[in-house]
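User: Second chain of the day. Same drill as before.
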Amino acid sequence: MLDEFQDLAPTALPVLSETMSHSDKRWIVLAGTPKWIDNPLETNYRSSTANEWHVTCGGCGKETLLGEKTLGLRVLQCPSCQHPLDPTLGRWIARNPQSTWGDGYSINHLMVAWMRVADILERQQHYDRVTFLNEVLGQPTTLGDHLITREEIERCCEERPFAQKLEDVPAMFQHQLVMGVDWGGGSRSGTVAVLGYADQQRKFNIVRLDRWQPRDDGMQIMEQLFAICRRFRVRVIAADANGNGSINNRLLFDLLMKDGTPPRMWGIFYGVDTQPPQPHGVMTQWVVGRTPTIGGLFTRIKMQLLRFPRVTESGPFLDEFTCELAEFDEGMRIVKYSKPDDRRDDALHATNYGELVAMRMQSRLQQ
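Assistant: Same format as last time:
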């Protein structure tokens, strides 16, 4: 009996099977999560009878495979006629009924009795796309694909211009603005600032984006960031704290201190897993999981829970989201997100920092 079979080397099963050479029964049970298309578990499942749980719709009579398209707002529903589906009234249908390899069964959260639709929707909002497909729907993922398309992110754009002054922001959110900053470094990476707020529907509304090129003078960037903060009365900043980021964050903090009111400065570090924020001198230090938070951001874009200004103004920044790829790290045994060497993703990270802190603030307000 082998659990997490997807993480074993493809040649392991024949060797392990030799331990049963004296057995008259020779039963083999494999279990796990089919993380990506080309892994041992998915390969063996495709060779098996590959049973899937189908539910007959009481409305149109169609056989429906429970998956992402059957997720309604409160219940599972038929994707053809939106009639509610009862997962307990399903049956196994084999994709390969003539298989002699063995029996295979695909089990996901939608078909089990102990999971509510509300719990699944909560996971959909907070898990990254790859994790949701793997751990909730039991589906493998094709790696190397772009996580979102240009069409998907353009659907998040609203017909409003970049905010030019505080009065352009809805009055009830003017005091909740958060600036996310990804500091530039090297010859290609520039500095990007994203200004936005989280509303009661847990949407992150971006009101403007600003970019500086790698060759721009550092002190001029700092002064212009200060000017934006002053114009919009920004008192909460979430900024990259890796490398020179910690120095830049302190310089920006000191500039804002001269304006009278101490800002709330969050220094964001990427790590494997998200940890609780910690006070660090005059700032708050927060280690966030790189893969889960970026993946979660893409999920929220697909669900249109991020809102951008109109395409004509946001357009130059949107390609910094769509360039991201999913790759599997053999050493860490996890999916990672990366970009081609000739592309930039500074706007993606600035948005991720700002959204994380803004959503945390909104959660505290709703408690």
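The chain has two domains: 5-118, 150-366.

User: Great, on to the next one.
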